[in-house]
Design goal:
It is a single chain. The protein is of the alpha/beta class. Helices cover about 50% and strands about 15% of the residues. The chain has 10 helices and 8 strands. Strands 1, 2, 3, 4, 5, 6, 7 and 8 form an 8-stranded mixed beta sheet that branches. Helix 4 links the parallel strand 2 and strand 3. The protein is flat and about 100 Å long.
């Protein structure tokens, strides 16, 4: 009797093997069903969100300041590093300024600046476009208002304005040019017995190589190039500010000052915020923002796309541990 019972419960018998396969198959099917369920829920959510985004975007004005039918002060923000890849790119700033100058009911324009500077090329693009817009619309004045920081390339842009306002605690100036040259490791490499091996075509292709000694000609060449950019910066500031600038030998050395000292040096004209300038100087208190900003819908979709893609890959077993944040 006991021998028959042992034989019946033997896991190696075909009946037990079949039961085990059925259980494994049912478990695998359950996991697959759950994964596909999650996938279709995410797909449905994405579709609904897409429809909502289209609806919201249609309710938004097609351009900054669109549909404003009364007199107003136009505002364009310059915020953050001035760079082609940032929000404060020349394209974004000049697009906002063009819209502000060309708006039928804008009386004057405030360029509100909070930036440490950035690309001299991008700053020069903006400076030149401001000059063009002022010539095209002589009836409208441009006022620069520096909040926390208006330095380097940001001051380059501000200098094109008719007047510059700041706060006594603002950081203003830094009229200079710098290029990081890295670090020189050749001495350390010599002590460690490490040999630098390079293959190049062009005598100076290794310019600023941190593992090679600085060559006199290369140093002079880089200094000459930076001096040229600095000279362009100085000439633009002088053309914008004119005889308001004080004759101070430190003015174009790259130093920066607080707003109170900047006023003494002629770098700014007076103290005041954007609201003050609109109310007291332009005398049109209503402010309309013409700043070109990333679409909220685009920003949400950028973040949502990464999130959904990672979730789907993880739930379908396509992720190998790599995580995007």
């Amino acid at each position: 009797m006991s021998e028959n019972q042992n034989n019946d419960s033997n896991p190696s018998k075909p009946e037990w093997q079949l039961i085990e396969k059925l259980l494994q198959s049912a478990q695998s099917e359950k996991k697959s069903t759950r994964r596909w369920g999650i996938f279709f829920k995410l797909l449905t959510f994405s579709y609904l969100f897409f429809i909502l985004a289209i609806f919201v975007s249609k309710q938004m004005p097609s351009a900054p300041g669109a549909g404003v039918n009364e007199g107003h002060t136009a505002l364009v923000d310059v915020h953050g590093v001035i760079s082609e890849a940032e929000d404060a790119s020349a394209d974004n700033i000049t697009s906002g300024l063009r819209a502000a100058f060309e708006a039928e009911n804008s009386k004057s324009i405030i360029m509100r600046i909070n930036s440490p500077g950035g690309s001299p090329v991008q700053s020069d693009y903006v400076f030149n476009e401001i000059q063009r817009l002022k010539e095209k619309h002589p009836e409208k004045k441009l006022y620069a208002v520096i909040t926390d920081v208006g330095a380097s390339g940001a001051y380059y842009i501000a200098a094109a304005a008719d007047e510059i306002y700041a706060n006594p605690s603002s950081i203003v100036g830094s009229i200079g040019v710098i290029m990081g040259g890295g670090f020189g490791f050749e001495g350390l490499m010599g002590k460690l017995g490490v040999e630098r091996r390079t293959v190049k075509a062009g005598a100076h292709k290794d310019l600023l190589d941190p593992f090679s000694p600085v060559k006199g000609f290369q140093q002079k060449h880089m200094q000459s190039m930076l001096d040229g950019v600095h000279e362009e910066f100085i000439n633009s500031v002088k053309s914008g500010r004119g005889d308001r600038l004080k004759d101070d030998p430190l003015l174009f050395t790259g130093l920066f000052w607080n707003g109170r000292d900047a006023l003494e040096l002629g770098l700014v004209d007076a103290f005041g915020s954007a609201g003050y300038v609109a109310r007291e100087i332009i005398e049109v208190e209503k402010i309309v923002d013409y700043t070109v900003r990333p679409s909220p819908v685009d920003a949400i979709f950028d973040r949502l796309g990464v999130s959904i893609g990672g979730t789907i890959a993880q739930q379908l077993g396509l992720s190998s541990g790599f995580k995007m944040e």
